[in-house]
Specification:
Elements: E1 8-13, H1 24-36, E2 42-48, E3 60-64, H2 72-90, E4 94-97, H3 105-110, E5 118-121, H4 126-129, H5 136-152, E6 155-158, H6 161-171, E7 178-180, H7 196-204, E8 209-213, H8 222-235, E9 242-246, H9 254-262, E10 267-271, H10 275-283, E11 287-290, H11 299-306, E12 311-314, H12 319-323, E13 327-330, H13 335-347, H14 351-361, H15 366-378
Parallel strand pairs: 1-2, 1-4, 2-3, 4-5, 5-6, 6-7, 8-9, 8-11, 9-10, 11-12, 12-13
Helix pairs in contact: 1-15, 8-13, 11-14
Length: about 375
């Protein structure tokens, strides 16, 4: 059946497009929107919860919708009141929320849009399986709203086959109603030839270093990595390697705070690193260490591999799916096994390991993910 000749009017939740502070959902939104907004015959309306600062793409129409929504009470108000009225005002044909939070069908019915097609991206179900790492109020909100949205949405996106299987098992969703739109590196990453010495000098006092990149939350399991590094140092006091931790706390983690106070000068907390500096800190590392207990995708795995950095990873959740044969694995909480991996990374030849990582990283592209999303969203376009 032919499509309506007018533009397909897609509305998108753009709350996570935060200038200078993009995290996983923000980068995912940004890179897909760059491509989806250029789709011929589409008109993409971006719903922000504050004044728009950048992130206006050719083919997009920005809107400031409601008040800034940075608290569960305000999330509810934004999703249940502000978004439905904005959808009605622009005469939207469909709505996509990259953060997994949708207005309820009840709220849409109040404005005469009860059958509006809706799509949500559910990146992972950490709030279901790892609730202890999330503030209770936030966890309760996500568990309630994502479960309802999964039942009421016309389609779901997620970022890995592992997360897709989890959505099917947890919410009894038809697999045909879920499209995998994988993440990819947030920017172009590549090995930096001759940059190792400069990276070591900048971040590790001239010493070789192991690296972690990510938010400091309990599920990222940075505490196990620190303990493994301390074990490595005890076993091999002659080794000069240091541990560089890139990122900032996301939620309170008393265990990690205690370790930070006692970790000593060989564990370096360098805060947020972005852009070319992030590429450089990856490329100069002996190995990237990712002991996470649970992920939807694990973007730093691909960024590290693309930068020519060998990867050490936990062997659970989606990590083996993403890193494949390019990583060396250990159970996330096995301190002794992680200490062994650190030693292997310090003494063994790394070139084959690096080459496998470069090949594996090339599998993940935003163009491919956008094509998957575009095909699924196109099925929601009104027909004549």
């Amino acid at each position: 059946m032919p499509h309506d000749p007018r533009p397909f009017r897609l509305a998108v939740n753009a709350r996570w497009l935060l200038p200078g502070a993009l995290e996983g959902t923000g980068w995912y939104s940004h890179r897909l929107l760059e491509r989806l907004c250029a789709t011929p015959g589409w008109e993409v309306h971006l719903f922000f919860d504050r004044d728009v600062e950048g992130f206006v793409y050719p083919g997009s129409v920005p809107h400031v919708v409601g008040l800034p929504a940075r608290h569960p009470w305000l999330w509810k108000l934004w999703n249940e009141r502000s978004v439905p009225w904005a959808l009605r005002r622009i005469k939207a044909d469909a709505y996509w929320s990259p953060d997994g939070l949708l207005p309820s069908r009840k709220a849409l019915k109040r404005v005469g849009l009860g059958s509006l097609p809706m799509v949500a991206t559910v990146h992972d179900l950490n709030f279901v399986h790892q609730p202890e790492g999330i503030p209770p109020r936030v966890g309760r909100y996500y568990r309630s709203v994502v479960a309802r949205g999964a039942a009421e949405a016309d389609h779901l996106f997620t970022v890995s086959e592992t997360s897709k299987a989890d959505l099917v098992a947890t919410y009894s969703i038809d697999p045909e109603c879920i499209t995998v739109t994988p993440n990819a590196p947030q920017q172009h990453f590549a090995p930096i030839q001759g940059g190792t010495a400069a990276a070591q000098q900048r971040w590790a006092g001239g010493n070789p270093y192991f690296l972690f990149v990510g938010a400091f939350t309990p599920r990222k399991n940075v505490a196990t990595l620190i303990r493994a590094f301390q074990t490595f140092q005890t076993r091999h006091p002659e080794r000069p390697e240091q541990l560089v931790l890139v990122g900032n706390p996301l939620h309170r983690d008393a265990e990690l705070q205690a370790l930070a106070r006692s970790s000593g000068s060989s564990v370096r907390w360098v805060g947020r690193v972005e852009g070319s500096d992030l590429n450089a800190v990856y490329s100069g590392a002996m190995a990237f260490c990712f002991p996470s207990r649970f992920e939807g995708f694990g973007i730093p795995l691909v960024e590290a591999m693309a930068s020519g950095c060998p990867v050490l990873s936990s062997d659970v959740s989606c990590m083996p799916e993403i890193a494949g044969d390019a990583a060396r694995y250990a159970a996330p909480d096995d301190v002794e096994a992680w200490a062994d991996l650190l030693y292997r990374a310090a003494i063994e030849d790394r070139q084959e390991w690096i080459d496998r990582g470069l090949n594996r990283a090339a599998v993940f592209t935003w163009d491919a993910s956008a094509a998957n999303a575009r095909a699924a969203l196109e099925t929601l376009r009104p027909a004549l």
